[in-house]
Design brief:
The complex is a heterodimer. Helix content of chain A is 41%, strand content 23%. Chain A is α+β, with helices and mostly antiparallel strands. Chain B has two helices and 17 strands. The longest helix of chain B has 11 residues. The chains are: A alpha+beta, B mainly beta.
Chain lengths: 345, 291
């Protein structure tokens, strides 16, 4: 009989939690107003599910997008803070080998952890690509000047320490330019056959998602992705990271901006430089405060925008499959974040 | 004129306006193959036919307009021809041919599940005297489970009421187990692939070429096998070989392979007469485009 009483008690608590959320329809209505989620099942979100939608096909051939929605059992303020500073490297399944904050202004020492001596095959791939690199033809995303500098620095020597030092100098130049000039400092890649500008690619993708761009206009204007502002008026968290992208070691430089908008938060995590495999990405978050069973929680919408050269040749069913697999990776990352939030409440 | 066509499409299909606006919403695939199998002794039904060599060709083109986020149509055609060097009056067809439409759709059923339904109505025969009996419409229903970027499972069902085995199930897997190696165990071309670089791939593999065809009303009698008049033949050919695949542009791949054919059969299953060949060398070239 006691188990029956306990069962009813738990059931009642769950019902009350949902009722508390349902009554506070503000965040849900707000989320529905700009996102692809027209049915938001809070019970599923409370249970840890992640709602997900592949983005619709873009006119921009290199672009792909997706949307996700999930809950975090800590306050919106704390969730926003954690999203801004989150280090994915402890989660082995995400294949992030290094993730480090950059000072502002950044210095060479910020990159001293960049290590090509690892036995990871994908890092070895990047090392080999760097050693075999010629300024004329490369899989690496660089300007002509960077290409000359990297070739002169490496001089085809298969010394991992030397390659780390050469990359560190190159990344320092990129990061410093971004810290000084914002997106205007993100120079286009010249070595990929055409001039490819990461900010232009991000703006093109956002222009195709007007409802999202409108919703995020407060933060997008402040960081210069929309409007006329060139130098961001928000101070971001700067980072560099080394990870595995489809068996290829990839270095990226990114910045995560956060802005409080009324009672909720907007964040933009943008990769203003990626060493290869793809061009750039931006992840947008909107975090609303909600109450879960009397304790503060956060409802999070996440939008991912991703530009890659091979997408222009990925059409039809292959593209649908690509989008589905991209969502799998994003959900894996979200689950890691949620698990961490649960254990570090 | 162009506007009128677009307007008509908009009325006919809800996704047509999207196609007109977005070139990414239409994908096309084109496959061309040619193969040669050296002469090999062929016998069956108490008859020794002698050495039979073979030329085969296949041409397939499919256009896939995307109707909405999850649904793509598949419209196209396929022409396939097996041409056999048989002696005069041998009870084997010198040509087996397929000329068919490709009609179907691809649909994302759930986050990890994609499905394909495809029917190929057309003429499947020796093209001697084309009649209603030569018309067939095999149906393929397939599903793919995307377990991860490196592992996908495939399930398929082929339905063809004219064959000896009208329903054939199949299971396959694509497993990329390292940066360079992929086990692409999918019918009709299971392969073990090795990526030399981003453009060049080597592979070991097998292939099943099969089809069901009707032969002419008077095919058997002049060949001393009256039971073969108006018969249906299940044709089957197995290949084992190795080859290379070269991506000459991001959208065009050419392939060349060679190996041996361990088994080939012409199964006239209704009169129960089967002609078989074993162990012959073969070579094949192909060009695949996805754009």
């Amino acid at each position: 009989m006691r188990w029956l009483a306990a069962f009813y008690t738990v059931g009642l608590c769950c019902a009350l939690s949902v009722a508390a959320l349902a009554a506070d329809s503000g965040p849900v209505e707000s989320l529905k107003s700009f996102s692809d989620f027209q049915q938001v099942d809070l019970n599923r979100l409370l249970a840890g599910d992640v709602l997900s939608e592949r983005g619709s096909l873009m006119d921009f051939p290199n672009g792909i997008s997706s949307q996700t929605c999930f809950m975090v059992p800590v306050s919106a303020e704390e969730t926003a803070k954690r999203l801004q500073l989150w280090d994915p490297s402890p989660h082995g399944e995400l294949k992030v080998f290094a993730f480090h904050a950059l000072h502002a202004p950044c210095e060479l020492a910020d990159f001293q952890q960049l290590d090509f001596k690892t036995r990871q095959r994908s890092v070895r791939w990047l090392l080999d690509k760097t050693i075999a690199f010629t300024p004329v033809k490369s899989d690496l995303n660089l300007t002509h000047d960077e290409a000359q500098q990297l070739a002169a620095c490496v001089q085809k020597r298969a010394d991992p320490q030397k390659v780390s030092d050469c990359w560190a100098k190159l990344l320092l130049g990129r990061a410093s330019a971004f810290q000084q000039k914002g997106l205007d400092g993100a120079q286009p890649y010249d070595t990929v056959g055409e001039s490819v500008s990461p900010p232009v690619q991000l703006r093109t993708m956002l222009r195709e998602q007007l409802a999202i761009a409108r919703e995020f206009s407060p933060i997008l204007k402040r960081i210069g992705l929309l409007g006329n502002e060139t130098v961001p008026s928000l101070t971001p968290f700067y980072y560099w990271t080394l990870f595995d992208a489809d068996y290829h070691g990839t270095i990226s430089l990114g910045a995560v901006y956060q802005l409080a908008v009324g009672d909720h938060y907007q964040l933009v995590d943008l990769e203003y430089y990626v060493s290869g495999n793809y061009y750039t990405s931006a992840t947008l978050f909107e975090v609303w405060p909600v109450e879960v069973g009397g304790t503060p929680g956060a409802l999070v919408w996440r939008g991912d925008f991703f530009a890659a050269p091979m997408l222009a040749f990925t059409k039809g069913t292959e593209r649908i499959a690509y989008g589905a697999l991209m969502l799998q990776d994003i959900k894996k990352e979200i689950h890691c974040f949620q698990d961490e939030a649960k254990t570090k409440r | 004129m162009k506007l009128r066509i677009v307007a008509t499409l908009v009325l006919l299909l809800p996704g047509a306006a999207t196609w007109a606006a977005n070139s990414m919403s239409i994908s096309q695939e084109s496959d061309i193959e040619y193969g040669y199998i050296g002469g090999v002794g062929t016998r069956g039904g108490g008859v020794n036919i002698g050495s039979v060599d073979e030329h085969s060709a296949d041409l397939k083109y499919v256009v896939s307009p995307q109707l909405n986020k999850d649904l793509l149509l598949r419209i196209g055609f396929e022409w396939q021809r097996f041409s056999f060097g048989v002696p005069d009056h041998a009870p084997l067809p010198s040509v087996l041919q397929q000329a068919s439409l490709v009609l179907g759709f691809d649909y994302q059923v759930a986050d990890e599940w994609l499905m394909r339904v495809e029917v190929q109505p057309g003429i499947y025969s020796d093209f001697r005297d084309i009649k209603l009996r030569d018309v067939d419409a095999p149906l393929v229903i397939g599903a793919a489970y995307l377990a991860s970027a490196d592992l996908q499972w495939f399930f398929g069902l082929r339905v063809d009421v004219r064959t000896q085995y009208p329903v054939l199930p199949a299971v396959g897997v694509r497993w990329k187990f390292s940066d360079e190696w992929t086990l692409d165990f999918m019918l009709p071309k299971p392969r073990l692939e090795y990526d030399v670089n981003d453009k060049l791939q080597l592979y070991l593999g097998a292939e099943i070429q099969a089809g069901t065809f009707a032969v002419g009303q008077n095919f058997g009698t002049p060949r001393g096998q009256p039971k073969l008049d108006n018969a249906i033949v299940d044709y089957l050919e197995l290949h084992l070989g190795s080859g290379c695949s070269w991506k000459i542009t991001p959208t065009v791949t050419i392939e060349a392979e060679a190996g041996f054919m361990p088994y080939r059969s012409f199964d006239f299953f209704d009169p129960n007469i089967v002609f078989r060949s074993h162990n012959a060398p073969y070579g094949q070239i192909a060009c695949h485009a996805r754009f």
